[in-house]
Design brief:
With 253 residues, the protein is of the alpha+beta class. Helices cover 17% and strands 36% of the residues. The chain folds into two domains: 32 residues; 211 residues, Jelly Rolls, CATH 2.60.120.
Length: 253
């Protein structure tokens, strides 16, 4: 057989293999779509509870993370001004500081939480898995335990694989007690988000649902600033996050 004939035979085999693979992939996708949405719930992708070694309150950093292979990202103008400063020194000034991790004697069942009180401009935090994007399509959802005061609302933020940020319209409002809630991503509407300044951007209108198949970072924010009294400490005006669970499918980076 001539070399030309061998080359044509190899090309033919490759084309056939590609057609067969494409047919199988299309069949698998069709079968997946035929499964009821309620039976396509994704697994737990990330759970973060935060940790403290001592009964204290201090700057929130990577050292307080409990989820493996996950980076903590913190956003907002207030936090940047506080970087590298001693917590006690900041408390003695009118600077405020940014996101803190706090241990309180109450509630007894889970006394450690992230505190937005010292954010004299809005703050946000986000989580980035080092190995995977997260697919937040189908019945992906969020569970969290929060408590807000002073008209603060906790909202979800995401950064998609193309580097764009969005904020969802689900809002967890003020409450007297800590509340555990869950909500589906599929029901949310989105606005463009400026992570550096922690505000909405663009026209302010809702946008077409972004590509949720590859989400780079998932986080939370309150668009309100913290209390001015007592350098942002106290219960008058703040958002609080005890723990968060993200349900979605991992997608290799």
């Amino acid at each position: 057989m001539s070399s030309r004939a061998v080359l044509l035979a190899v090309i033919g085999c490759c084309v056939l293999a590609e057609l067969v693979f494409s047919a199988f992939a299309q069949q698998a996708a069709t079968q997946a779509r035929s499964v009821p949405l309620e039976d396509r719930r994704p697994p737990l992708f990330l759970r973060e509870t935060f940790k403290m070694e001592t009964k204290d309150e201090t700057i929130l950093t990577q050292t307080h993370m409990t989820a493996p292979n996950v980076d903590l990202r913190i956003y907002g103008e207030t936090q940047a001004k506080w970087a590298g400063m001693d917590h006690a020194k900041v408390r003695a000034t009118p600077l405020h500081g940014g996101l803190e991790i706090v241990w309180r004697a109450s509630p007894l069942d889970d006394p450690t939480f992230v505190f937005w009180g010292p954010c004299n401009t809005p703050c946000a935090l986000a989580f980035r898995d080092r190995n995977n994007y997260v697919d937040l399509t189908d019945l992906a959802k969020i569970k969290w335990r929060t408590k807000q005061t002073g008209f603060h609302h906790m909202q979800l933020i995401i950064k998609t694989a193309d580097g764009k940020w969005y904020i969802g319209d689900y809002m967890e409002g003020p409450s007297t007690d800590w509340l555990e809630r869950e909500f589906s991503i599929i029901d949310m509407r989105w606005k463009e988000f400026d992570a550096e300044h922690v505000v909405t951007k663009g026209t302010g209108a809702f946008v077409t649902t972004p590509d949720l198949g590859r989400v780079d970072e998932v986080g939370v924010t309150s668009l309100a600033s913290g209390a001015l009294s007592a350098n942002g400490h106290g219960s008058s005006s703040a958002a609080r996050l005890d723990w968060i669970e993200i349900y979605g499918r991992p997608v290799k980076r």
